[in-house]
Amino acid sequence: FSGPFTDVVTTNLKLRNPSDRKVCFKVKTTAPRRYCVRPNSGIIDPGSSVTVSVMLQPFDYDPNEKSKHKFMVQTTYAPPNISDMEAVWKEAKPDELMDSKLRCVFEMPNENDKLNDIDASKPAPVLNTSKQDGPMPKPHSVSLNDTETRKLVEECKRLQAEVMKLTDENRHLRDEGLRLRKVAHSDKSGSPTALALRDNGSNSLPSLLVVIAAIFIGFFLGKFIL
């Protein structure tokens, strides 16, 4: 039995029947209160084997104390038509019984074994083996992208300001055109006032085209930034 013995320690005992007849077995111990044996008796068929679990109950281990615990496996050929196992052992003759004696040995793991167990219980380090699609970006490339982004944002703001300025100018020209058109209705078509109206109307057309172009530029730049 290998310690520590602060909990139940189990050892398996394998019994094999090499004969061509059924064999009855029984497991006995000198310390029945210290052990739990399952199964402690039974029948083994010819050429078969049975595993017996011997469970040692927790106790205070003293390395200076020698173990005096012993086990005995007693066997006998099973009679035909067996029905009562206890009757088999009571009626068996001494020369029909066979027994094997075993002495219990207690072992405590040494310090080196404990250290090895602790090291083995530690989880292995997990290596990050996942591959990236491309090389890691360098810090200066990240800062360069940020700088370009800020420049584009400032350029977009400047264009928007120009669009607003051109819009105000176009509104002013439109109001001026309406005023001149009213004056033209009151004058003759060949008067200097009518000629001035036509000149102002033709001059406002390029300004309107500039405003529309600026609006489209701002729209596309805004889509690119977002």
From TrEMBL:
Keyword field contains Protein biosynthesis: no
One GO process term, biological-process aspect: neuron projection development
Record-linked InterPro entries: Ig-like_fold, MSP_dom, PapD-like_sf, VAP
UniProt keyword terms in alphabetical order: Acetylation, Cell junction, Cell membrane, Coiled coil, Disulfide bond, Endoplasmic reticulum, Membrane, Phosphoprotein, Tight junction, Transmembrane, Transmembrane helix
One annotated Gene Ontology cellular component of this protein: endoplasmic reticulum membrane
Subcellular location: Cell junction, Tight junction; Cell membrane; Endoplasmic reticulum membrane
Residue ranges of the TM segments: 205-225
Predominant location category: other
GO molecular-function terms, A-Z: FFAT motif binding
Pfam family, one: Motile_Sperm
Role noted for this protein: Endoplasmic reticulum (ER)-anchored protein that mediates the formation of contact sites between the ER and endosomes via interaction with FFAT motif-containing proteins such as STARD3 or WDR44. STARD3-VAPA interaction enables cholesterol transfer from the ER to endosomes. Via interaction with WDR44 participates in neosynthesized protein export. In addition, recruited to the plasma membrane through OSBPL3 binding. The OSBPL3-VAPA complex stimulates RRAS signaling which in turn attenuates integrin beta-1 (ITGB1) activation at the cell surface. With OSBPL3, may regulate ER morphology.
Family per similarity comment: Belongs to the VAMP-associated protein (VAP) (TC 9.B.17) family.
Identification of the protein by name: Vesicle-associated membrane protein-associated protein A
